[in-house]
Specification:
The chain is an alpha+beta fold. It contains 20 helices and 24 strands.
Length: about 625
């Protein structure tokens, strides 16, 4: 066994290098720490200059309050800071930095020079830490009000760390993302980022809503701004502001998700789960929502001192934060109805994922094969009489079969009455889409996706109030299942009752269905029950988790109860469907996040046919 070394105090330089291992992961970490110091100093302009992806040079200049001559050397000592002075202040941290480790840690793994001119001082002063964390005496320098920190040859004395750095372009990309987060966090400051003497990002202060959205478009793209909803909510001592993307603007990765807590960009599992929960009914499978959100919390109720790089926070009341975010964002998403929609929803190519486009946009799709003539079928119970009572008589030719356009003048539906947001139906296309005329163009509706959302929302409402209404079957239907599914049905009879079923086990591998939900009375009972059992099996036997996830089961049931493709509808039934869509939350997308309708305005139609050109 090797001899045990005596316990001894570590050298100051080694202590700082160990701290640097936590604080300084890569050049982007240096930029983050230095810019946060600038913001804490009251700067409203920050310039960042880089060479070789930050490996050769990082220079951060600001116009903040500056550092007095006698404090320059102290600023490079460990745990020396002006931001906290007591435990009480540490428990209510309002600044971005507070540990006092950034400058000495950076200085221990680079050649650092600190130059500053404080408020009211005639001269600027400079200290050079050289190749150690021990600075020399301050020397006079030429510098305007504010501070410049110059970091050269990062990790020059720790080659083991330096070899893990990536290519210049990759490191610059990380820095660019870090500066983008800072620009999103503080609209009141101007930021300029230059790499190898070329400007990579530059934004001016944005002091009003228009300027903020322009900055948002520059940083994240105009598509996000066009397809985002504004959020401005307050409850239970919490404030939430920002923008959330429409479900059809979802992403393949979580690359457009920015959450700021008291001005600090963080990654928090509680908040991320709550936001995902808000989108669960409207998000396409394996897609991620896009958002830029600002959560303000009493500083005493959030602990920012849980991660060396301050990436994470801990909320004192995580349940309150979770419920506030989930409920607030769900209400915002549900508030989008056709009459308030500023966007149209268009499926992405090959239906790989939904995407959103602006009004008047056009989409191109391959011509479908000509289907066989749709068979004539009876209606499917949209409450036509109720719809007529609410919205007046339907347009002429209400009894014409699907696929037939009403013969009177095309504007007959829109001349003498207020036109509903989704207009009046003209025809059914290939048994799949509804074509409707609006006041300023036409709307195309995917009737299956739209009806699926309507049925789902009705069942959710029923489940949340008195339970899903049931309808007894004249003859009980036996359904063959596996022995495991038969046991599952027997153990979850109460769950089935909540969902509107009465299901009894009548053998080792068979169940008997006596009642089904009234909204699904025309569905294939065997397939419906089999799919519900599959969902229950996937959710496991945890009763609490099952109660939380019942909406997933309702989504499966709604799909069974919605009108299928190639089903012929009358003009009156189509209009009833449109009116139901206008009253239904989240009607812009089905339960799986697919779009349900799109609009073509007159300007877009004119462009298609080159009218007026």
């Amino acid at each position: 066994m090797a001899a045990t070394r005596p316990i001894q105090a570590l050298p100051e330089q080694l202590i700082n290098q160990i701290a640097a291992g936590e604080v300084v992961e890569r050049p982007a970490s240096v930029v983050k720490e230095l810019v946060e110091n600038s913001l804490d100093a009251g700067a409203d302009r920050v310039d960042v200059d880089l060479e070789a992806g930050g490996k050769r040079l990082i220079r951060v200049r600001d116009n903040g309050a500056g550092i007095a001559r006698e404090q320059l050397a102290l600023a490079l000592n460990r745990h020396a800071t002006s931001k906290v002075a007591s435990l009480q202040e540490l428990e209510r941290v309002a600044s971005l930095g507070f540990r006092g480790e950034a400058l000495p840690s950076i200085a221990s793994v680079s050649r650092l020079t600190l130059t500053s001119r404080a408020d009211g001082e005639e001269l600027a002063w400079e200290v050079d830490a050289g190749d150690s964390a021990a600075p020399g005496e301050p020397a006079p320098a030429a510098h305007p009000r504010g501070t410049t920190v110059e970091v050269r040859d990062l990790f020059f004395n720790t080659p083991g760390r330096r070899k893990f750095l990536k290519a210049d372009r990759t490191e610059f990309g990380h820095i660019q993302e870090q500066v983008r987060r800072i620009a999103l966090a503080r609209f009141d400051i101007g930021v300029r980022l230059r790499h190898n003497d070329r400007t990579g990002l530059q934004v001016a202060p944005a002091m009003d809503d228009v300027a903020r959205e322009e900055r948002l478009a520059r940083l994240l793209g105009s598509g996000f701004v066009e397809q985002a909803l504004r959020v401005d909510l307050e409850a239970a001592g919490l404030t939430l502001q920002g923008w959330v993307g429409l479900p059809t603007f979802s992403r393949g990765t979580a690359d457009l998700q920015y959450l700021f807590v008291n001005g600090r960009h963080v990654r928090d599992r509680t908040a991320a789960h709550a936001i995902r929960r808000a989108y669960q009914d409207v998000l396409f499978k394996d897609r991620y929502p896009a958002y830029v959100l600002y959560l303000e919390v009493d500083p005493a109720k959030v602990d920012v001192n849980v991660h060396p790089a301050k990436h994470e926070v801990r909320f004192r009341d995580g349940r309150l934060i979770h419920d506030f975010l989930a409920r607030s964002l769900r209400d915002v998403l549900e508030s989008v109805r056709p009459e308030a929609a500023d966007v149209s929803f268009v499926a992405a190519p090959n239906d790989a994922a939904p995407a959103a486009r602006s009004p008047g946009s056009t989409s191109t799709a391959g011509s479908p094969a000509s289907p066989a003539e749709a068979p004539q079928q009876s209606g499917f119970g949209f409450g036509l009489r109720e719809a007529q009572a609410l919205y007046g008589e339907p347009p002429p030719a209400a009894d014409q079969p699907a696929g037939t356009v009403a013969r009177p003048e095309p504007t007959a539906a829109t001349e003498d009455r207020d036109v509903p947001p989704l207009g009046y139906a003209l025809a059914q296309i290939h048994g799949v889409f509804i074509l409707a005329e609006t006041a300023d163009g036409v709307v195309l509706v995917d009737m299956h996706a739209a009806h699926e959302r309507i049925v789902y929302e009705r069942m959710k409402e029923a489940l949340a109030t008195q339970g899903v209404a049931s309808q007894p079957l004249l003859v009980p239907v036996p359904v063959a299942v596996t022995p495991a599914e038969a046991e599952l049905a027997e153990s979850h009879q109460e769950t089935f009752r909540q969902l509107g079923f009465e299901v009894d086990r009548n053998g080792p591998d068979s169940v008997l269905v006596r009642q089904v939900p009234g909204l699904l009375r025309h569905a294939d009972v065997g397939r419906l029950v089999a799919d519900v059992l599959a969902d229950l099996r996937a959710l496991g036997g945890d009763g609490e988790r099952l109660r939380e996830q019942l909406n997933q089961v309702l989504g499966t049931m709604a799909c069974h109860g919605s009108v299928r493709a190639n089903r012929s509808l009358t003009i009156a039934e189509m209009n009833a469907l449109l009116r139901d869509m206008e009253r239904t939350p989240n009607s812009g997308q089905c339960n799986h996040g697919r779009p349900t309708w799109t609009r073509l305005g007159m300007a877009a139609l004119d462009r298609l046919f080159m009218r007026g050109q």
